[in-house]
Amino acid sequence: MADGNRAASAMAGRSWPRSLTEVPYWVFQEEEVYRAEQENIFHGPFWSYLCLEAELAEPGDFCATFIGEQPVLVTRDHDGQIYAFENRCAHRGALIAMEHYGHTRDFTCVYHAWTYNLQGDLTGVAFEEGINGKGGMGKDFCKAAHSPRRLRLANVHGLIFGSLDNDVPEIEEYLGQEILDRIERVLGGRKPVVLGRFTQELPNNWKLYMENVKDSYHASILHLFFTTFGLNKLNQKGGIIVSENGGHHVSWSAINREAEAKAASTYKDQNIRSDSEYQLQDPSLVDSFSEVGDDITLQILSVSPGFVLQQIQNSIAVRQVLPTGVDTTSLNWTYLGFEDDTEKQQLTRMKQSNLVGPAGYVSMEDGAIGGFVQRGIAGASSESATLQMGGDQAVSSESRVTEASIRGFWKVYREAMGFSIGETEGAGK
Ligand code: FES
Ligand SMILES: [Fe+2]
């Protein structure tokens, strides 16, 4: 906490425009800001996605992951409960577990063999009594006082979230009902099965990726594939939900046959790059089935600071956004199916997984665009981005031609960081 306060007061000297329509570029560039984020955001009162409950099916299963840069271990013990604690040995700080996923009875640190149980209690110290009465730990050494710090945990329809701050609000309050409902829509009452995972390294600050995820404005413009094959146009029925605090969002769209005909002409009239002479040689790539019995074919949901739940047709995935430096980010993808999928449905999901990921027909551009911004703003730390699309508020809207959910992200972020909110009105007013 002391560190957190230090970081917050360091940031108070920084002025942020009052309007939510301006984002100063230095926020993507400075080491000092990056350090303060680790304290104020990732160690602060936020919930971070850790893993799926389904990935810890058996007692003894574990997952080594991160909150920001902080390594953490998530386990299932023999009491059936899930636990999480810092993945850092209480002795001299080595990682307790090295593998990303595994199964174990307990953990032994490789350095000097201190051991931990599945709940993260320090249970053994090698040569604690010394040898032949010589050496060893002092009499007053107490193992219980040297266990790694435990995290607070929450389980939302099989998504495990953790927080390093005991003062974080309950997850239901943190997310709000609308976001909870939309998570439930995709995951409620279903048993996920992991179809595959990979990590994508992004050449940009993590916040540029979160902006991109919340940016419904770009989807049908940057992603030629969407419009070429009629998967997502801004004039489809859809909308944006921004949570009350601004930090979380849902962008969704549904099939609307009537709009389809109009759509082609709108895009053509405005000379937006949205059509091409190319056709899929195997159209079964975009064959789909109704995911949960409704018409919604796209639902992208984000939870601040760094979680995404994706439904693009039948490609369901969770994404964990992990900052690894001022201008580097690890993006961990986990593709999901469900236990009661038919073989055909699973095949459809596998085919559609080609839409996303680093080489995905759709999301390849998202992996590059953050780098274009990072490179574009070099030398412009005193300039800012403008976020005026759809007004200057951070509220839900029926139109996806808006940057409302990006403004919401910054609203929560700038408050958590303790910047002093300046007098500049910003161009959006
Ligand atoms: S650092 Fe883990 S036992 Fe020494
Ligand atoms: Fe995108």
What structural keywords apply?
single chain; binds fe (ii) ion; globular; 429 residues; 11 helices; seven-stranded antiparallel β-sheet; alpha+beta; binds FE2/S2 (inorganic) cluster; four-stranded antiparallel β-sheet
Give a brief outline of the structure.
It is built from eleven helices and 21 strands.
Description:
The protein has 429 residues and is α+β, with helices and mostly antiparallel strands. The chain is built from 11 helices and 21 strands. Strands 13-19-18-17-16-15-14 form a 7-stranded antiparallel sheet, with helices on both faces. It has a 4-stranded antiparallel sheet with strand order 6-5-4-7, with no helix packed on it. A hairpin with a 5-residue loop joins β9 and β10 (122-124). It binds FE2/S2 (inorganic) cluster (FES) and fe (ii) ion. The site of fe (ii) ion has 7 residues, from α6. Fe (ii) ion (FE2) binds next to α6.
Strand content: 25-35%
> If helices are DSSP runs of H or I spanning 4 or more residues, what is the number of helices?
11
Largest sheet: 7 strands, antiparallel
The chain-level structural class is alpha+beta
Proportion in helices: 25-40%
Q: For the terminal residues, how far apart are their CA atoms?
A: 37 Å
Global Rg: 23 Å
Q: Could you tell me the number of beta strands?
A: 21
The distinct bound ligands, ions and cofactors come out as:
FE2/S2 (inorganic) cluster, fe (ii) ion
Strand order of the largest sheet: 13-19-18-17-16-15-14
How confident overall, as mean pLDDT?
Answer: 90
**Unreliable residue stretches:** none
Can you tell me the overall shape?
A: globular
